[in-house]
Design a protein that fits this description.
By secondary structure, this protein is α+β, with helices and mostly antiparallel strands. 17% of the residues lie in helices and 31% in strands. It folds into two domains: 2-56 and 151-259, Jelly Rolls; 268-677, Alkaline Phosphatase, subunit A (3-Layer(aba) Sandwich). The protein contains eleven helices and 37 strands. The strands form nine sheets. Strands 4-5-23-22-24-19-25-29-20-30 form a ten-stranded mixed sheet, with helices on both faces. Strands 1-2-15-14-17-12 form a six-stranded antiparallel sheet, with no helix packed on it. The longest helix is centred in the C-terminal third of the chain and has 30 residues, at 447-476.
């Protein structure tokens, strides 16, 4: 079927579209089960909250800074030699109001572009005048530069062998930096060459970024069944219709070819991280309150690890250990906004390299894509709340994940979900506001801390319900028998058990012990409970082995696959946890400063807490027998030989560092505000 000059509405994008073959449809396509990438993704683009790998112009941040007022913003910006690929450069300039009260998200005051002619090799460019933005207070400025090709046309090609029932998936978009800036329409075209020199047009569309609609991705699916078994060359071309005066920046998202019918029997992997969820607040781990009825039921049909220990009591280091199977000293993220070390390979990179679709849905905090958390994900969506008061976006995040997995049911995939719903500031939605209010559950003595714990428990019920909806969506998509789901957390939370509040400055069990449940009907027998201590670094090699993906050498973690599949007892090993926050909170309003780091060293039921301050006196080493004293109320005497052995173990741990701390990632004003709301920034 051929459609010409037809207006197609998809979301809010208006397109003039020409299609060849009835399979050309503007709806999200089922993902391939055996992927052939047409080309290596060379850049990425963020539109709204969604970042995708793709092919198109890549930006370079030239400047970012905070200023007291618009009058202090520089008039010029230095240009980088790295941008000398054409005679013109597009400078995308964004200005935010600096929020000093942490109540609402920092609003954008200005967004615009300047096109700079570099034919004379000018070392700097004049910025747009923002003196008329109507804001006299402090603000933040970011400038991103994109090289603009002299030619109005661009193209790339790729060869593939079309499988039976073959389908081509791709997406098209205009980078949002040039949306609504007068850069003119862009035409997109996909053509096919099947031997010889003649090309057949498969798809043609034009996007006008100066239309009233907001920017967005337009996903396409083209049926290649007529070419099954043949090697073809696909050509992807764009043309700025305004010619030399146009500057809109087109991008293609990760074109792939795959067979429509799923033949690959490898399991899907869904990894769910419920940020700040401590094990002791769940029914499956002995909690009296009914906070987690659905998660408790998962433990009855899967495998639960009673003593899963985090690698760090803050979000970034713990999640990177989850992603890489490496301790923080080796993956390079130990504090602040450090980037992942280049040698540290993530689960998403390994799964993508093995032919898996990869997608992540996260929100509001530290898991910034460019710090390395997005490496390997073809799609990385970060949801930002409308206000800073309640950073959790579980309803939105889980809803997006449910829609994604239903649309990608025809291929093995690795899906990561992460929500801050349980993280402070605890602000459960109205239907849950009175839950657990007067159930007689003993508190911490401090009224403010007790109230915070009650709200925390209500937030757990919210994410528990979202977990139930996620599993229902997996079943409705027919994926229950082919999907392994892992539910865990990055760290726990303190509510006065040892005089502290929240997390980051202590390594008692309420902070370090996290839930860990594996569910995989037909693949992971249940119910089984395992009491041997395991670490978050064990999860990455476990998931890789369960999926049949080669496990890299040299990981700190040990695969638990035989434990899950056959019930073998996990091998005992020493587990280390770090605490590096510089504040210890006492209640919602008070904190004290201290000198980190602090380490927990655990083997079996024996646990030591060791302070290694960068300066000043160290706190005494503590030892607990968790079999007799699970709440760590009665420190034991430490023999000199034992103290020396633990110190030696920490020395060995620190010497294993193969990562030099990477420079901190560029931090946008909105991210700064989100981190302040979460208690991670001043």
């Amino acid at each position: 079927m051929r459609l010409r000059n037809t207006t197609l509405a998809s979301g809010c994008l208006a397109l003039a579209i020409t299609c060849v073959n009835s399979g050309c449809a503007p709806s999200p396509a089922p993902a391939p089960d055996s992927l052939q990438w047409v080309t290596s993704a060379e850049s990425d683009a963020t539109i709204g909250s969604e970042t995708r790998l793709g092919t198109g112009p890549a930006g370079k941040i030239l400047h970012y800074g905070d200023f007291a007022s618009a009058a202090d913003v520089p008039e010029f910006v230095q240009l980088s030699e790295a941008l000398a690929t054409g005679s013109r450069v597009v400078l995308a300039q964004r200005v935010w109001r600096r929020n000093t009260q942490g109540r609402n998200a920092a609003p954008e005051l200005y967004s615009g572009v300047v096109v700079v002619d570099r034919s004379g090799a000018q070392p700097r460019a004049r910025l747009a005048d923002i003196g008329e933005i109507g804001h006299s207070g402090p603000l933040s400025l970011q400038i991103v530069a994109f090289p603009l090709s002299d030619s109005a046309s661009t193209e790339f090609r790729g060869d593939v062998i079309v499988p039976q029932g073959g389908v081509l998936d791709f997406g098209i978009a205009i980078r949002q930096e040039t949306w609504g800036q007068g850069g003119g329409p862009v035409e997109f075209e996909v053509s096919l060459q099947d031997g010889g020199d003649r090309e057949q047009t498969l798809f043609s569309a034009a996007i006008d970024p100066d239309a009233a609609a907001p920017p967005g991705w337009l996903d396409q699916r083209i049926d290649l069944a007529d070419f099954a078994g043949r090697r073809i060359r696909l050509r992807f071309a764009t043309r700025r219709t305004a010619g030399e005066t146009g500057f809109s920046l087109p991008i293609w998202s990760d074109p792939v070819v795959y067979p429509r019918q799923r033949l690959d029997t490898r399991p899907n992997i869904v990894l769910v991280s419920l940020d700040t969820l401590r094990a002791r607040s769940l029914g499956a781990y002995g909690y009296a309150r009914d906070t987690s009825p659905f998660l408790d039921s998962l433990a009855e049909r899967g495998a639960l690890f009673e003593n899963a220990i985090t690698a760090s009591v803050t979000t970034s280091p713990a999640h990177m250990s989850l992603f890489t199977g490496l301790y923080p000293v080796r993956h390079g993220i130990r504090e602040g906004l450090q980037r992942k070390a280049p040698h540290a390979i993530t689960l998403a990179q390994l799964f993508r390299g093995a032919g898996y679709r990869t997608a992540a849905f996260t929100e509001n905090g530290y898991l910034v894509r460019r710090r390395g958390f997005g490496d390997g994900f073809a799609q990385y969506t970060e949801n930002v709340g409308e206000t800073l008061k309640a950073p959790g976006e579980a309803r939105r995040t889980f809803g997006q994940a449910r829609r994604w997995l239903k649309a990608n049911a025809e291929t093995p995939f690795f899906l990561f979900l992460h929500t801050y719903e349980v993280h402070s500031p605890y602000d459960p939605e109205t239907p849950y506001a009175s839950l657990f209010r007067s159930d007689g559950e003993p508190g911490a003595g401090n009224v403010a801390v007790q109230g915070a714990r009650d709200r925390y428990d209500r937030e757990i019920r919210i994410v528990d319900e979202e977990l139930e909806r996620l599993f229902a969506a997996i079943a409705e998509a027919g994926l229950a028998e082919s999907t392994i789901v892992v539910v865990t957390s990055d760290h726990g939370e303190e509510f006065g058990e040892h005089g502290g509040y929240q997390h980051g400055g202590a390594v008692y069990e309420e902070s370090v012990r996290v839930p860990l449940v594996f569910v995989g009907p037909g693949r992971i027998p249940g119910p089984r409970r395992h009491s041997t201590p395991v670490s978050l670094v064990d999860i990455a090699p476990t998931l890789l082995e369960l999926a049949g993906v080669p496990v890299p050498d040299g990981l700190d973690g040990t695969s638990l696959a035989s434990t899950l599949e056959r019930g073998d007892t996990p091998a005992a090993h020493t587990i280390v946890t770090e605490a590096r926050a510089t504040k210890r909170w006492l209640d919602p309003l008070r904190h004290v400063s201290w000198n980190p780091p602090l380490f927990a060293v655990r083997r079996g039921n024996s646990k030591f807490i060791v302070h290694r301050p960068a300066s000043g006196a160290a706190e005494p080493m503590l030892r607990f027998d968790l079999a007799d004293d699970p709440t760590e109320q009665h420190p034991l005497t430490i023999e000199p030989d034992a103290e020396r052995a633990v110190d030696a173990a920490i020395d060995r741990y620190l010497r294993r560092s193969t990562a030099q701390p990477e420079p901190g990632a560029d931090v946008s004003p909105k991210l700064k505000e989100r981190l302040r709301a979460l208690g991670y920034a001043e």
